[in-house]
């Protein structure tokens, strides 16, 4: 197009990014915790917090891709267990650790690919497929190990979980690198555009020539890869492969992190930035409650309420920038209060 | 003639910084059909949505029989006697026809449905409007035209005093439109209700309306009884003075292709069909020609285009593309072979609602503007912008396309199709919802593409006039059959075309009866 | 609460079937117990089926129902939780199947109220196990040292809470010692690692960690190392599997899950053969000190 | 309506119900298990199986309503714990058991109503709201009890969990009654139609005049009610209120049961019949594995694969009644095999 150069692109007006609201909430929550304890506001605690949140951050990263096409990956926590056991088993069988890591990451991507393939070939809901591979992965971890832990003896491997680069723990660095790559992938590449298109309107995307099979498989492979990276990191932190690692809150927290950050469960909407803010919010709250000596009985309640309030404010900001939140309630009551709900 | 039933006064609406209605005042009278016209993005749909309580205005008042009203929702409006059909189909596809017809006004006692009564009433209604349905069909399984009729029926069946219809006829065929026009006029007179209809088709406006209001950029520019207006007045109010004379009504005057070019067909279709689908379809399509495909609703025109684009399988017959066997397994496949398809179901599969117009247009051609999968965004956007501008999209092309007006969305879809630089272009209702000014430009645009770039175009349209304007030849589809016999447009008028479509299908003798051979 | 002697028909078969219900196999403790049941059960002429409840009471109850279906001759029950355990023992009693509990005792009052009965309990004294570690802490750090201790445990389970109680009791003997925190490590090393790190962040002056389970100990050790506090914080624990007492890891008490299983099997054999069995068998914990490695089977 | 009588109602063509496929799969799986063990095929085992599946069935019932409007209820498992503790606490404070049950069921409905209200007023994604109430409910159970169990001393209460009517355990009877009521509610009432409409297209339903607030609150209240009923039953079976009861697989299994039975996670599609078949399938597989002494290591794997295969066949049947499944694979390969995935 020769005329292309002549037409000026409309200047895009600068606008508040979607994630501003939840970032604000994160800052408020963090500030509150800091105000309550001097131990919270040390640099070293900041790093501990990020270190402890790194694996959930990685899972949230993978989950973001899957959610963006309107899918869900329930197998992600179980994959941590399976892959953590796998990497330690490989090392126990004499594979040198860098190779063992590479093989494990490949295995994670393969697990994800299998999810994607089943979803795409048989058109079975992702919930069922990944529910099933969740079962398979967690069983595999137990079967391989006989439920025993597998110690890691190659001490070099520890660097992945315990090392630091310029004072920043390696897992945090790894997460940061992959988050940036993921952000670029989604915003700058054809594949990224196709992922959003698939989630936005699957049928329209197909008619526009988007390869749904490829996008579906890729996002699940990415999620599998992220989970295996999480498994490697968890194992390197403990220096022991343990078949129940990752079977705790990881799955829920990873989905919640993405949703908190504005990723829609129905696909097509959301960014990596948001999911990472969500993951940090969860990390801050989990860390903060232990630093502040909140009783473990109260912790789920506190984390639940903080997340809820943060998302309420964020949703609010997105919908009615400006109006105070009391107005929403009043509007609701106006709509429903005077009349009977009928 | 009748009393002022509903008055909208000084309605103002803003979206962000853009004001889409600048204090619009209109009056709808009992017993009258009121036409609301204007260019795409003029604010017609927004006005209706405000009156119906689906959108909250930033200023102005609505009065129903002199009383100021402010409906909190369309259902509140409906219970006050204001029923509406919006531009985007809003039936629930997972429910049955009957369930849709009675949604939120179900018959029953103490919350328990009276299914028999609803079913009986629904059958009556469907029969009255000539729809061959039982009422128990899931809406998802119905073709677009029937869905549109069901929405209209559902609004008319409510005992409303004001009925708002936003482009009710876009998917309907002539017969249905004629019947609808007749029904609307009758209902208006007999029940003394006010009917408001948004429509881009002038003949319909003149056939049905008593009174016309035209909007331009959110302002009333014309308001008067139809008797006092001429076609020219109306066109001028939509497209502006300068262009009115030049643009309307002329057939684009590019030459037909010489007959020898047709000797090398771009696409040859020989007796294709499938069980529960097309029966037997044959035709040739040559580079640089524009072939119209006409038929009654349900005759299989859309199915044919979908089959050509790899969206539906065919099990017998064969297709040849530039001399090679062509059997697309998927749309991607078809695209790679140089075909492009514009769907009639804009909202269902036409575009990605969260993407803006530019991004939607870029989607199929990203590969052209990328290196190792990395998009050269600026370059891609420039290309898309050029085409989008030439189609005169109004509204913010950087806003999610789902928020643009219907006609402007349609323009974006056309731009997307054009950008793909296809060698074969399949258009299903290409100007659905597009205003008269832009329509003739689009016709000219299509002809230019064919004549200058040698694109072979296959056009499906329920508007005979459109086919007669834009096509070289027309082929007829009937009950899943198409013999491929061509009718030159110069020898046709709408009446002849309709008669041809009604004639019983002639078996396709060239390839034998494909269905029989398969059995 | 001994009623009539229960002895199902199926016990008269040549190799009677006995059911073993365990809470999980994510703790090496139960893996050792399970293996011992299989080995000693076979030796004693039993067919053994083991059910794992994945820490769910209702699932364990279903598994007990499955045992009743299979007409087992006797059941060795390590209840997920002691309260709900009463319902399982009752269900078995009503089906005429004798119940042998181990490791987790079943709530006596509930049992009585519901009309169930238990032949024998075998297990450690959890409180004692915690107390021993408390004493070891005081001994190791000296009577005069200021001790600020935190617990990496599972506050949602009874046995671990009993261990914590023992530990706190021992420390309360010393006015310089306080237990300030209990965090939930869910008996998982990865979770224990995180919560232990965070607890230490929030309590910089903390110098003792008591991990009340083996997996908790694994996490606590890594947490102390990761924060570079190996010389400041001492860890006392219920023993982690295959882990040498070195660095910050100063002492551990171990139970012998394999032994409990062995005793249970022998008691079942004896009971079937008409011998009298003791209603309660309490076993002491083994204590390991700095430099030692607990042998396999000696677990927290 | 005078015309109603005159107009003949068109005969509805008989068609295979949507659930036929998954019912077939259930029968196949059950037959396989029966073939493998004589214990499986006793009547009493059939009842034990249903008894053990009753609570998950109840949760699946509530979840079906929520999923039908396109929501999700994560708080359902935690509500079992909370409500189980609540009912035993009420009884411990001297409330007679029938009253305690009534109060608990009301409390469950209130918990659900709160979920629905927050979702509807603040437009926060249901995932976040119920994630948060899940945390609140599970914390409440722990806080109330201090992680101790609360014994039930009113022996009459046991009938709810351990009684039988004509040989059929009471929980199974309760489930059956509520399943039938739920089925009638969805198919015969205005509210039912509105629930489907809301899930089909929220905006279109709103435009048509469906009261979204009412449908939303009602479905979450129903789910809360079902969860509290589950808590009452679990407590009556164990005769002790315990704060971690219901926090295991219940949540996942209940969603999975509904999805297996054809309820869409995106709303608008599915029936109670399907969800109940799904719940029975899960009960058969869980129970069957225990009866057949499948090693616990293998159980998640087996359940995952059986569910996956069942749903693959079922999806298949719905899409191409007739064509053999090998054809799907071949069609997929035809689409993608010869070419590179690009
Ligand atoms: N939700 C929205 N957000 C932002 N802008 C909107 C929204 N809805 C409509 N608009 C803008 O308001 C203007 C008027 O739109 P409207 O749909 O009323 O036009 P119309 O006259 O019905 O056009 P058409 O003939 O194409 O249907 C358009 O520019 C459109 O982009
Ligand atoms: N997007 C679609 N995908 C698959 N099948 C469809 C789709 N749209 C409609 N159908 C089915 O195809 C049948 C024909 O619908 P369609 O609107 O294509 O009519 P048609 O026969 O091509 O008629 P027309 O000539 O009016 O376009 C309908 O009965 C419907 O079940
Ligand atoms: Mg419009
Ligand atoms: Mg059509």
From TrEMBL, chains A, D:
**Membrane topology type:** Multi-pass membrane protein
Q: Where are the transmembrane segments?
A: 20-36, 48-69, 81-112, 124-144, 164-186, 207-231, 251-268, 298-316
Its subcellular locations are: Cell membrane
Q: Which domain of life is it from?
A: Bacteria
Q: Which GO terms describe its molecular function?
A: transmembrane transporter activity
Quote the InterPro entries the UniProt record gives: ABC_transp_permease
Q: Name one GO cellular component term.
A: plasma membrane
Q: Which Pfam family is one of this chain's hits? A: BPD_transp_2
Q: Which UniProt keywords apply?
A: Cell membrane, Membrane, Transmembrane, Transmembrane helix
Q: Known PANTHER family for this protein?
A: ABC TRANSPORTER PERMEASE PROTEIN YPHD-RELATED-RELATED
Q: What is this protein called?
A: ABC transporter permease
TrEMBL record, chain B:
Highest taxon of source: Bacteria
Q: Which Gene3D superfamilies match?
A: P-loop containing nucleotide triphosphate hydrolases
The GO terms describing molecular function are: ATP binding; ATP hydrolysis activity
What keyword terms does UniProt attach to this protein?
ATP-binding, Nucleotide-binding, Repeat, Sugar transport, Transport
Please list which residues make up the signal peptide. Answer: none
PROSITE patterns in the cross-refs = ABC_TRANSPORTER_1, ABC_TRANSPORTER_2
Tell me where in this chain the ABC transporter domain is found.
6-242, 261-504
**Name listed for the protein in its UniProt record:** Sugar ABC transporter ATP-binding protein
Query: What is the phylogenetic placement of the source species in the record?
Result: Bacteria, Pseudomonadati, Pseudomonadota, Alphaproteobacteria, Acetobacterales
């Amino acid at each position: 197009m020769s005329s292309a150069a002549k037409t000026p692109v409309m200047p895009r007006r600068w606008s508040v990014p979607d994630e501003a609201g939840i970032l604000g909430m994160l800052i408020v929550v963090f500030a509150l915790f800091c105000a309550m304890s001097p131990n919270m506001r040390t640099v070293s605690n900041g790093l501990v917090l990020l270190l402890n949140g790194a694996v959930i951050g990685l899972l949230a990263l993978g989950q973001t891709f899957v959610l963006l096409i309107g899918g869900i990956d329930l197998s992600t926590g179980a994959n941590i267990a399976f892959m953590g056991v796998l990497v330690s088993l490989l090392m126990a069988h004499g594979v040198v650790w860098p190779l063992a890591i590479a093989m494990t990451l490949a295995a994670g991507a393969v697990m994800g690919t299998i999810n994607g393939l089943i979803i795409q070939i048989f058109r079975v809901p992702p919930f069922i497929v990944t529910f099933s591979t969740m079962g398979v992965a967690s069983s595999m971890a137990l079967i391989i190990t006989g439920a025993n832990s597998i110690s890691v003896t190659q001490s070099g491997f520890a660097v992945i979980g315990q090392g630091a680069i310029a004072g920043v723990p390696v897992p945090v660095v790894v997460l940061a690198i992959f988050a940036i790559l993921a952000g670029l992938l989604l915003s700058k590449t054809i594949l990224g555009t196709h992922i959003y298109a698939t989630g936005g309107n699957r049928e329209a995307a197909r008619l526009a020539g988007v390869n749904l099979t490829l996008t579906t498989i890729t996002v699940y492979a990415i999620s599998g890869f992220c989970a295996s990276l999480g498994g490697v990191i968890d194992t390197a932190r403990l220096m022991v492969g343990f078949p129940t690692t990752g079977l705790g809150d990881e799955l829920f927290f990873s989905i919640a992190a993405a949703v908190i950050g504005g990723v829609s469960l129905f696909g097509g909407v959301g960014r990596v930035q948001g999911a990472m803010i969500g993951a940090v919010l969860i990390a801050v709250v989990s860390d903060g409650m232990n630093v502040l000596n909140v009783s473990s009985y109260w912790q789920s309640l506190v984390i639940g309420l903080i997340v809820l309030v943060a998302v309420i404010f964020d949703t609010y900001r997105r919908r009615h920038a400006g109006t105070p939140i009391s107005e929403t309630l009043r509007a609701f009551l106006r709509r429903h209060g005077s009349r009977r709900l009928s | 003639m009748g009393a002022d039933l509903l008055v909208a006064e000084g309605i103002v609406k803003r979206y962000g910084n853009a004001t889409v209605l600048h204090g619009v005042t209109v009056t709808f009278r009992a017993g009258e059909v009121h036409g609301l016209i204007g260019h795409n993005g003029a604010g017609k749909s927004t006005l209706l949505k405000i009156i119906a309580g689906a959108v909250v205005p930033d200023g102005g008042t609505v009065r129903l029989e002199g009383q100021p009203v402010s409906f909190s929702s369309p259902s509140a409006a409906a219970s006050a006697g204001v029923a509406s059909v919006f531009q985007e189909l809003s039936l629930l596809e997972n429910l049955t026809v009957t369930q849709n017809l009675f949604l939120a006004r179900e018959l029953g006692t103490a919350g328990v449905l009276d299914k028999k009564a609803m079913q009986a009433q629904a059958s009556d209604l469907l029969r009255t409007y000539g729809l061959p349905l039982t009422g128990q069909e899931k809406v998802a399984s119905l073709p677009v035209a029937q869905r549109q009729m069901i929405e209209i029926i559902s609004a008319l069946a409510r005992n409303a005093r004001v009925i708002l219809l936003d482009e009710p006829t876009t998917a309907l065929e002539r017969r249905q439109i004629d019947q609808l026009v007749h029904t609307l006029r009758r209902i208006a007179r007999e029940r003394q209700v006010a009917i408001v209809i948004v429509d881009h088709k002038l003949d319909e406006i003149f056939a049905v309306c008593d009174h016309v209001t035209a909007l331009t950029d959110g302002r009333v520019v014309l308001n008067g009884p139809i008797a006092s207006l001429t076609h020219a007045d109306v066109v001028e109010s939509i497209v502006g003075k300068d262009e009115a004379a030049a643009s309307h009504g002329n057939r684009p005057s590019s030459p037909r292709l010489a007959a020898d070019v047709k000797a090398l067909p771009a696409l040859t279709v020989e007796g294709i069909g499938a069980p529960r689908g097309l029966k037997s379809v044959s035709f040739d399509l040559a580079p640089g020609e524009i072939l119209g495909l006409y038929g009654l609703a349900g005759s299989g025109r859309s199915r044919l285009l979908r089959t050509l684009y790899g969206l539906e399988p065919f099990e017998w017959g064969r297709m040849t593309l530039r001399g090679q066997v062509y059997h697309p397994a998927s749309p991607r496949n078809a695209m790679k072979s140089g075909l492009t398809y514009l769907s009639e179901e804009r909202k269902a599969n036409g575009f990605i609602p969260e993407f803006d117009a530019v991004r939607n247009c870029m989607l199929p051609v990203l590969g052209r503007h990328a290196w190792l999968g990395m998009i050269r965004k600026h370059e891609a956007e420039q290309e898309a912008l050029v085409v989008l501008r030439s189609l005169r999209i109004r509204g913010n092309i950087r806003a999610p396309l789902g928020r643009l007006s219907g006609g402007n969305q349609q323009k974006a879809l056309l731009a997307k199709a054009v950008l793909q630089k296809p060698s074969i272009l399949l258009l299903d209702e290409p100007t659905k919802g597009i205003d008269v000014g832009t329509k003739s430009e689009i016709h000219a645009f299509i002809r230019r593409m064919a004549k200058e770039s040698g694109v072979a175009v296959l056009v499906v349209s329920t508007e005979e006039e459109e086919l007669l304007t834009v096509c070289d030849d027309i082929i007829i589809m009937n009950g899943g059959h198409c013999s491929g016999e061509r009718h030159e447009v110069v020898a046709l008028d709408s009446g002849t075309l309709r008669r041809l479509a009604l004639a019983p299908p002639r078996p396709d003798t060239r390839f034998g009866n494909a269905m029989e051979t398969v059995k | 609460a001994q009623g009539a002697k229960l002895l199902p028909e199926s016990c008269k078969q040549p190799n009677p079937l006995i059911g073993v219900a365990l809470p999980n196999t994510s703790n090496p403790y139960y893996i050792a117990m399970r293996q011992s049941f299989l080995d000693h059960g076979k030796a004693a002429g039993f067919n053994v089926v083991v059910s794992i409840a994945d820490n769910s009471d209702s699932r364990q109850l279903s598994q007990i129902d499955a045992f009743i279906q299979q007409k087992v001759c006797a059941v060795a029950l390590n209840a997920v939780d002691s309260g709900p355990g009463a319902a399982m023992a009752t269900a078995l009693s009503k089906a005429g199947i004798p119940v042998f509990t181990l490791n987790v005792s079943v709530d006596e009052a509930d049992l009585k109220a519901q009309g169930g009965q238990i032949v024998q309990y075998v297990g450690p004294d959890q409180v004692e196990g915690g107390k021993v570690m408390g004493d070891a802490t005081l001994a190791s750090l000296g009577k005069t040292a200021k001790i600020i201790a935190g617990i990496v445990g599972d506050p949602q389970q009874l046995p671990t809470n009993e261990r914590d109680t023992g530990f706190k009791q021992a420390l309360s003997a010393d006015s310089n010692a306080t237990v300030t925190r209990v965090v939930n490590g869910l008996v998982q090393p990865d979770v224990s690692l995180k919560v232990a790190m965070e607890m230490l962040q929030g309590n910089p002056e903390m110098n003792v960690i008591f991990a009340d389970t083996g997996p908790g100990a694994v996490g606590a050790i890594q947490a102390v190392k990761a924060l570079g506090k190996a010389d400041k914080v001492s860890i006392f624990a219920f023993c982690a599997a295959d882990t040498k007492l070195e660095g910050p890891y100063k002492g551990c008490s171990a139970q012998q899950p394999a032994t409990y299983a062995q005793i249970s099997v022998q008691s079942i054999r004896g009971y079937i053969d008409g011998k009298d069995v003791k209603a309660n068998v309490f076993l002491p914990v083994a204590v390991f000190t700095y430099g030692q490695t607990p042998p396999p089977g000696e677990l927290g």
